[in-house]
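Thread title: Can someone regenerate the structure for this chain?

I was given the following input by a collaborator and told the matching structure tokens would be attached. They weren't. Posting the sequence so someone can regenerate them.
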Amino acid sequence: MTIRKPASAPITPAHGSITTPKSRATFAEERGQIEGNLHNGIESGKFFPETSGGITDPYAKDDVPNMAPPADGKIASGERPAAAYLDKTDIDWDKHDVISGTPLEFVWQFSARHKYRRFNYFITKDGWDHRQPLAREQFESKPFKSYLNERQPYWGFTDNEMWPEQPTVHKLLLPERKGYHVLLGVWEIAETDKAFYQVVDLNFVDR
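Best answer:
Regenerated them for you:
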């Protein structure tokens, strides 16, 4: 039987978030600082740190091209107006104490799963300025860890073959850092032009 390419999948109001360690959005939703369940819907264009849309995935040319990723200063909110609180620079964000060079589990929970292409994890550079809006220049230009779904084309596989596991657990080896840093997790979708953005605030302490 031939499996044909479907129309772009509809987007539902909520999708997924990093729940362990809790993301900035998860903390904010628990406290009523952003709309209920919006922590699962921080979505914008895929292929961060690109700035424009219409880009084809270099690995999977049949995936849906992207819409523009979030603008600088609106990365934590995914440029969602209702989540603008997440972009504030005058907040003492809840931080997780971590140690450089040690593994840390990041757990994604999903309220709606999609046929995905990859998970990317970025981290802020040494010397970044937390008093400034979160921008591309504050992050390393390449992810320090990626998890690629090699199955393509996406429509040639079933949902269960292309969906991430529920939950999805990534054990990341943390890079060398000191003090406060921001980790950005991006879940990129093969069947749409979007990705889901999660910021986690980390405090690197001595062993």
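The helical segments are 24-30, 159-162.
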